[in-house]
């Protein structure tokens, strides 16, 4: 997967070209909603991404390293100042909207994913 499509950078747009669709958006079109977010390399880009998402102080966003798989390095930010102070200790990150997941009748969150197997992305 990583050698062919890369890491989370394939899912999210780059803040350096915010109107260009991500690889996943290009492949899936309108079939699946992709969480809005942007790949950021530095503090200036992170601030731009917060603003591009239309967020204001008090509204939450998530900063997550592009190579994170378990969410432990994720950080919820609630202000432009928190965004400015982020230290990029884990390298390139995604700043994305913080979404409330739908829940199944048993209370467990319902999430969507893109499945990849033997060189193909399912759902095409």
Tell me what you see in this structure.
This protein has a five-stranded mixed β-sheet with strand order 1-2-5-3-4. The protein contains four helices and seven strands; from the N terminus they run H-E-H-E-H-E-E-H-E-E-E. The chain has a single domain, classed as Dna Ligase, domain 1, CATH 3.30.1490. By secondary structure, the chain is of the alpha+beta class. It is 21% helix and 19% strand.
Name the descriptors.
Dna Ligase, domain 1, two-stranded antiparallel ribbon
Poorly predicted runs are none
The CATH level-2 architecture is identified as: 2-Layer Sandwich
* Helix segment tally: 4
- Radius of gyration based on Cα positions: 15 Å
CATH topology value: Dna Ligase, domain 1
Mean pLDDT across every amino acid position: 83
The main sheet comes to: 5 strands, mixed
CATH superfamily: ATP-grasp fold, A domain
CATH class call: Alpha Beta
The helix/strand class is alpha+beta
- Distance, first to last CA: 16 Å
Helix content: 10-25%
Name the beta content range. Answer: 15-25%
Number of strands: 7
Shape field:
globular
